[in-house]
Write a structure and sequence with these properties.
Layout: E1 6-10, H1 15-26, E2 30-37, H2 56-69, E3 73-77, H3 79-95, H4 102-121, E4 126-128, E5 133-137, E6 143-147, H5 164-167, E7 170-171, H6 179-188, H7 192-195, H8 211-218, H9 222-226, E8 229-233, E9 238-242, E10 265-270, E11 275-279, E12 285-296, E13 306-311, E14 319-326, E15 329-339, E16 346-351, E17 354-361
Parallel strand pairs: 1-2, 1-4, 2-3, 4-7, 8-11
Antiparallel strand pairs: 5-6, 8-9, 10-11, 12-15, 12-17, 13-14, 13-16, 14-15, 16-17
Helix pairs in contact: 1-2, 1-6, 3-4
Length: 362
């Protein structure tokens, strides 16, 4: 074993995880590559070419790179665990009138656990991923994640659920680099196809990024079971018919099939009555939120009201807020109204660049 130790690297076949693996290899770690098969795209009925981390091409790319640099590579089939937890939750959340956050669940409950189980079997002290984020150990003994150098690629938002135990064995080699630097590294390695590989921002198990078709495929007789319902204004006026509440999300403006002469948005979803509430952009705004199932990173608890930046979606710039912890929930009081708080999505808290923690919006 090398002086730096043995490290298991999650390799999706993309440029980020590939460069991360080579970087650690060149730093003197004994690298073992692992590609996780989470989803069988072909079984979902997608019409376009299979892409992303679960495709055969991506698996072959990861294996070829590992062989080329002389370190082992394994494929781990976790489709059963992934489907039972992530996909079932995805469907259940839409049927409950919420908007799910599958990438957070996958990171927290599937990928990290699967990586560490295999790391233990292979006597690996550490695991590593290609996320754009940083991690450090504080004097308090707690591990904290902070934003990556590249603000456009920072992925700390999807990592709020990782436990302290798992963070203690995790490395993020790309946290101090910009995406452009990583692509250049791939070119310098002679991996020009890899350097120019496009990125997918779609949910990996939703064919053609059409979650409505996915729900119909997964839930037998969905349209018959739920059926059309009412579009309603906040004053109780019915203004049209919708196709069924699971097909709508908070903040949605397009595809409503109802004309008003001015923009209208989905403001609330009421599954018990199959009602979708519509309103103006102003009616989307709120000044507070409740966040459940919180996981705190920087501090064990927040015992007094704390000012922090709260992000309510991945590409959200964040808003100044005051956090008040109430057990395993967090009350968030925004200093200015924010728009489009969607139950089921993640709310993530920051103190400067440090990730305080996060949870799911109620």
């Amino acid at each position: 074993m090398s002086k730096k130790g043995r490290i298991l690297v999650a390799m999706s076949g993309g440029v980020d995880s590939s460069v991360a693996a080579v970087m650690l290899h060149e730093q003197g770690y004994e690298v073992i590559g692992l590609t996780m098969k989470t989803w069988d795209y072909a079984s979902a009925g997608g019409s376009s070419k299979e892409t992303g981390c679960c495709s055969l091409d991506s698996i072959n790319d990861a294996r070829a790179l590992s062989v080329g640099y002389g370190f082992p590579h394994y494929i781990l089939d976790i489709r059963d665990e992934f489907g039972d937890f992530v996909i079932d939750n995805f469907v259940d959340e839409y049927l409950a009138g919420r908007t799910p956050n599958p990438c957070v669940l996958c990171n927290t409950h599937i990928k990290w656990e699967a990586l560490l189980k295999r790391a233990n079997k292979l006597d690996c002290e550490f695991i590593a991923t290609g996320h754009y984020a940083n991690i450090r150990l504080q004097d308090t003994g707690r591990y904290v994640i902070s934003k990556g150098k590249d603000e456009h690629k920072d992925q700390s938002y999807v990592l709020w659920g990782v436990s302290q135990e798992n963070l203690s064995r995790t490395q993020f080699p790309l946290g101090s680099f910009a995406k452009s630097e990583i692509r250049q590294m791939a070119k310098d390695m002679g991996q020009f196809d890899l350097a120019n590989k496009s990125e997918s921002y779609e949910i990996c198990f939703v064919p053609d990024n059409d979650y409505r078709a996915f729900l119909r495929n997964k839930v037998e007789d969905l349209d018959e079971r739920i059926g059309p319902g009412n579009f309603m204004l906040n004053n109780g006026t019915v203004v049209g018919k919708h196709k069924g509440y699971p097909y709508y999300t908070i903040g949605q403006r397009k595809g409503l099939g109802v004309a008003f002469g001015h923009p209208m948005y989905v403001t609330r979803i009421l599954p018990e009555s199959n009602t979708v509430m519509l309103g103006t952009e102003n009616e989307l705004e709120r000044t507070d939120a409740i966040v459940r199932n919180i996981n705190l990173l920087k501090y064990e608890n927040i015992n007094e009201p704390l000012e922090a930046i709260t992000k309510i979606r991945y590409k959200d710039a964040g808003a100044m807020s005051t956090l008040i912890q109430e057990g395993d929930r967090m009350k968030v009081n925004f200093h200015h109204a924010v728009s489009g708080i969607a139950p089921g999505q993640s709310a993530v808290f920051y103190e400067g660049n440090d990730l305080l923690g996060g949870g799911f919006l109620v």
